[in-house]
Amino acid sequence: MDAQKFRALVVDEETEGNFIRTVAERCVSDLPPGEVLIRVEYSSLNYKDALSASGNRGVTRNYPHTPGIDAAGTIVESIVDEVRPGDSVIVTSYDLGMNIPGGFGQYIRVPSSWVVPLPTGLTLKESMIMGTAGLTAGLSVSKVVAVVAPEDGAVLVTGATGGVGSIAVAILAKLGYEVIAVSGKADAEAYLKRLGAREVIGRDQLIDQGARPLLKVRWAGAIDTVGGDMLAAAIKSTQPGGIVTCCGNVASAELNLTVYPFILRGITLAGIDSQCCPMGLRQKVWAKLADAWKLAEMDTLCQESALENLSGHIETMLQGQLKGRILVNLTA
Hints:
Blueprint: E1 5-15, E2 18-27, E3 36-44, H1 47-52, E4 70-78, E5 88-92, E6 107-110, E7 116-117, H2 124-145, E8 155-157, H3 163-174, E9 179-182, H4 189-195, E10 199-201, E11 219-224, H5 228-236, E12 238-246, H6 260-263, E13 268-271, H7 279-289, E14 302-305, H8 310-318, E15 325-329
Parallel strand pairs: 8-9, 8-11, 9-10, 11-12, 12-13, 14-15
Antiparallel strand pairs: 1-2, 3-4, 3-6, 3-15, 4-5, 5-7
Helix pairs in contact: 2-3, 2-7
């Protein structure tokens, strides 16, 4: 197999600080050592991929590089007994697509400990409509449903048109929760209500311009995907005993808060880490995404893209204008 050639999106530094993206031919022998070789059928575009594809060395240290923190496909070679050639599998997060050639190539080689068997109930395509965004949304929903029941009140979702936010809105609505979605996009309301949101509010309706330590209670819990002032406002507006999850920092990594929401209202702030999530929990969430939490008409969550068209979607994501998910078809 080492002589097998394949196509991949390759990001290279043409001149200092100037990065270019091309679809190039690679060879399996170019891949790093690993226990499992996978023929990738689908991947998906995540914000971390967009950063890597733009030369962000906080994500990817060395170039040329192939991004793609998500991959789903079929094992073609394995030197371990746990997974075998012919198995359909998912690989997300860890160092895939960051410093290891990722899912924007038709082959990847990875440690067997990164591999999740495709759960019954999901196709490879459906698993990548979910991808890391779906896993992150699922981990967030798991935290919320352990504390807040539908009858306890509404659940807020920030960054609701993004990949994590869209999937979180849809899962919560499927489970019977009243969802309040936050978006800064003027045309987002119809999309979010189609996913199941009861109400869509703008960022200015959430963010507190003052410095009050607590705000009027508005929801039982929240799933925050952006950080910064929106996360602070979500926490300050959560009812006593509620929970807020945190999985992103695209707005800001800073959190301007007092301790009062935690010691006067007993709010729980739960961090979500999908990159190094333990395998047992990872498989448990994937099983829910394939069964009880599986979404109907999943294609409505995504646009499908070939490798050749991916660069345009990367730019749209970096500009904050992307809605839903970009599914990358490696067989197209």
